Amino acid sequence: MATSLQNAPETTGSAARRPTLSERQKVAIVTVSVLAVVTAVAALRAGSSTVLVQALVTGVLTGGIYSLVAMGLTLIYGVLHIINFANGALVALAMYLTFVTVDTMGVHPYTALLVVVPAMGVLGALLQTSLLNPVMRAPIQIQLLVTIGLALAIENVLLLVFGPTPRSVQLPGNVGVSILGATVELSRIYAFVGALVLVAILSLVLQRTAIGTSIRAVAANPEGARLVGINTKSIYSVTFALGAMAAGAAGVLVAPFTTIEPTSGAIFNLTAFVVVVLGGMGNIPGALVGGLVVGLTEQLAGLILPDESPLLAVFVVFLIVLFIRPKGVFGRAS
Amino acid sequence: MLELTGVRSGYHGLEILHEVNLTVQPGEIVAIVGANGAGKSTTLRTIVGEVKLQGGSVTFKDQPVVGGRSHELARRGLMLVPEHRALFGSLTVDENLTMGARARKGRWGFEKDWILDLFPILRERRTQLAETMSGGQQQMLAIARALMGSPDLLLLDEPSTGLSPKLTWTVFDAVKAIRDRGVSVLIVEQNASQVLSFADRAYVLESGSVVLEGSGADLADDARVQAAYLGG
């Protein structure tokens, strides 16, 4: 069973709403075929296999990072139906926390996970309890404004505390290694592996633990959850905490190869949103696939249309997908 | 068990229930019958605090019921099965049942086997997603989920909606079995003739007021009830 938090309207039973396995397979086959054709075109344009392999490897690794950043966003959307525009700012905050931890304690950057992830969890729970729970029944634009305000507040507090000077975190032994002839930094490989581990952990928590079942129940039907004695507001807080922890893990993992500035996270916001929509809002493994599609699209488009912004191709793909499957590649058919 | 005294309630300043008095004693089935819009569902929604109480009082086990905290009521042993069922569609039958047991919090509970014996079809479909089941199966699952929470009082809102006559009797037979195990049931039905045939007591609601009350059998024989609801 896919770890999907998508909410379906309560109806009398109809098996037609959930795509059958064969439908999912069709989607996968089409996606892979399109990527193969694009890759072939890119190969012709590139003229050298080294350039192509470099693009593919970079695309996959960058895609993993995009999905890493998008994970918290899709989790929070799936349960709370809030598009958390502060997700990028939370990632930026986590990067600064990593910088401070490494700078003051002199520890290995990945050791900062032990500090940053729990701290982000506590912060996430506090934010949901104090700012978002009171507006959960308000119109969606109110919730959007709260998260946008939160993003501005976080960015400006970071600016106030750390100033505009860019910071960086050095990963010891971060050398370039060769994969199939392509050269990549180790830190990017670690971040990619981190994305896979994060998907696995979140899926396990949601599918196999009591709190995860409660989270899925609240996502499926908040009223039903209250009727069986679940305090939905505390589940919302736990979910936002998990989303913030995912943003925290993403921040630590991308810090070694990202220039740390107060607005660093905002750069990820738009891409993360595209990734979440492509993967199906609320679908955690979908976010991983969405990230890979965006990462590969960017790199291959760079080969085919070297003079255009890679984002052009990303948004063309985005629009085509929205047109064909409005609920995302792995979303449920409408 | 449950006592409504002079209850006035409604939406957006509009009063729908006028001075409703109603009681449910331990171990009895009480029915609320009446036409569409008579205030039957509003009565249930007022009891669980989803509609604001504007006057009078609602007490459950001699404790006042406060609005807006329906998850606490479930933990106190009062469970509502709403007309639209409010199932967890993307969860399996088994997961829905497990979630129902959350309300129990260490209190004594029905054996899951006994509940599944009431609705054997659920036993065959434990790994199926709730949203892929038929309307009748979903109704049974909704009642089974509430029973997993081991309620002292079960509120059923129009459980026969959308069910075939045969399935309706399966559900009503289960309601009788639940009562026989000591659970009080307050059931709202448009299907008056059927529900009056097994309810211990019943109230007839009209335009938000109780116009008749009595034993199920007496009301079924009442000329006014027959004229209004039983097509007689």
The structural class of chain B is alpha/beta
What share of residues are in beta strands of chain B? Answer: 25-35%
pLDDT averaged residue by residue of chain B: 89
Mean of residue pLDDT values of chain A: 87
Total of DSSP H or I helical runs spanning 4+ residues of chain B: 10
Q: Order of strands side by side in the largest beta sheet of chain B?
A: 6-7-8-3-9-10
Tell me the helix content of chain B.
25-40%
Question: Total number of helical segments of chain A?
Answer: 12
Q: Name the CATH superfamily assignment of chain B.
A: P-loop containing nucleotide triphosphate hydrolases
Distance between the termini of chain B: 34 Å
Largest sheet of chain A: 2 strands, antiparallel
CATH level 1 name of chain B: Alpha Beta
Overall form of chain B: globular
- The CATH topology annotation of chain B reads as Rossmann fold
Q: Tell me the major beta sheet of chain B.
A: 6 strands, mixed
Number of domains of chain B: 1
User: How do the strands of the widest beta sheet of chain A line up side by side?
Assistant: 1-2
For the record, the CATH architecture of chain B stands as 3-Layer(aba) Sandwich
- CATH architectural arrangement of chain A: Orthogonal Bundle
Which residues of chain B form runs of ≥5 with pLDDT under 50?
Answer: none
Summing up helix and strand content along with how strands pair, one would put the structural category of chain A as: mainly alpha
Give a structural overview.
The complex is a heterodimer of chains A (334) and B (232). Chain A is mostly helical. Chain A has one domain (47-324): ABC transporter involved in vitamin B12 uptake, BtuC. Chain A contains twelve helices and two strands; from the N terminus they run H-H-H-H-H-E-E-H-H-H-H-H-H-H. A two-stranded antiparallel ribbon of chain A has the order 1-2. In chain A, a hairpin with a 2-residue loop joins strand 1 and strand 2 (182-185). Chain A is globular, with a radius of gyration of 20 Å. The N and C termini of chain B lie far apart (34 Å). A six-stranded mixed β-sheet of chain B has the order 6-7-8-3-9-10, sandwiched between helices. Chain B has a four-stranded antiparallel β-sheet with strand order 2-1-4-5, covered by helices on one side. With 232 residues, chain B is an alpha/beta fold. Chain B has helices at residues 40-47, 70-75, 93-100, 112-118, 120-124, 135-148, 165-180, 192-196, 216-221, 223-229, and strands at 2-11, 14-24, 29-34, 53-60, 63-64, 78-81, 153-157, 184-189, 201-206, 209-215. Chain B has one domain: Rossmann fold (3-Layer(aba) Sandwich), CATH 3.40.50.300. In chain B, a hairpin with a 2-residue loop joins strand 9 (201-206) and strand 10 (209-215). Chain B has ten helices and ten strands. Chain A binds chain B through residues 4-8, 10-15, 17-18, 213-214, 216-217, 219-221, 223-232, and chain B through 48, 70-72, 74-75, 79-82, 84-91, 95, 98-100, 102-103, 105, 129-135, 137-138, 145-146, 149, 162.
